Amino acid sequence: MKTIEVEEERHSSVIFIRDRNTHGQEVSGYIDYAHRLKTEDFEVYFSGKKRLLPKLTDLSFYNWDSHVAVWNPSPNYQVITDNPEGLLFKYKRDRKILNVDPKAQPGDNSTRTSIQTDLYIQAVIFDHISRRKT
Question: Which terms are listed as keywords in the entry (predicted)?
């Protein structure tokens, strides 16, 4: 009997948002989209009742006024903060590195898309495709 290998793909997105919070402070951070979808109801964001902003529990959070900086791993990503070139995320499934530096390539099987919007100061979506033979 012959076994057939099938390549399974998984799509993962990290959202970078920079904007002002309800106190008028500039905040920015990286959000593991799949993790946030599992942990909270996104209907308020999709309907426009609430704006999506980074939280202290996301992959990263920085308050530009108070200089509070926080990093957290998620079920999908490990945060690498000791890199001389800046912040990196390692996708746990395939161990590929996502480089969020705008001057660098985002990494293998990853893309960076800047979003032109009036809703936020800055918004960028990083998409990663993980391929694994099953």
Answer: Cell projection, Cilium, Flagellum
